[in-house]
Amino acid sequence: MPAGVSTIGSALAAPTFFPAPAVPRSAPVGTAEKPLPLIIDSDPGLDDALAIGLAVARPEIDLLAVTTVGGNADVRHCTTNALRLLHLYGASDVPVAEGSAGALFGAIVRATEIHGESGIGNTTLQPSPSTPRPEGAVDLIAAILREHPEPVVIAPIGPLTNIALLLRLHPELSNRIAHICLMGGSIGEGNTTVSAEFNVYADPEAAAIVFESGVPITMMGLDVTHQAVLYTPALERLRGLGTASGGIAAELVDFALAREGQWYGTPRMSVHDAVAVAHLAIGDLVDVAEYDVQVDTGHGPARGRTVGDGLPVRRQRKGREPNAQVGIRIDRDRFEDVLVDAYARLP
Ligand code: BDR
Ligand code: CA
To answer: What are the chain's domains?
Structure first.
């Protein structure tokens, strides 16, 4: 401890927000007998790659499609990664369609300093025999929503551009979306800026459209995803599986441990996106609380902030109801076991 620094209390600043209490979840959960029909909209992405692996592996999820959006890397890299990851996971029959290259407005924001230029660090994946669907992400999602016998869950784990476009182009399909379980935002601090988490910062206007859509939303933001952390032993567990998928997952985790480790001083990886998928497969892994979430679309230092109000008296004063359930707690050890167990089931 440096001289002049007290040893009192924890190493982390105490959150100053009102601690909204946990409530029963509103997001549906799949079962092995009745898997949840799910579309993942993603910008793979190191943690996206693990989220997609989890979705393929879990019997509670029926993965209908993976659509891509520019985010962590250029959308063309993200589409190639999605195709190749699904091939690796033995799921090259899952359709992939490419979506928006960048935000509705403004500059394109990338997270290549964390995920590498390609989005998947230094890893090289084997080419897939499949190609992207010609109709593109928004039309593919619309067709699935229209044709699937029951409403479909969407897990957006990248910037929300495609989902906002879907809601604007096909408003009549919003009641075919059973739930949006997204990774993005933060009630507390951001990661890309002090105010804003990456997926929301990359397209705040799109995020605002989604949060104001009236579709039931669960927001897995940094408040919970920064608890969903892997350390070096998890890397060894994945490598120890001795499978192709486990080996690639270990490579991706290894890259992330070093990059995120630069922020914290010790190797660690927040597997943000996998929390959104895990919540749909496991009923009691993540605790959620009710919030009214509004997105700051201004151009000051709070641009992209998800302003979350968890205090009922304050919401009443504003005349606003909760529009999202927000992840607040996850059992880290169990989450690691869920991920390793998922990869044990993949080729
Ligand atoms: C989110 O941003 C991306 O870099 C990750 O893939 C995740 O979706 C975390 O802020
Ligand atoms: Ca992502």
So the answer is: 32-345 (3.90.245.10)
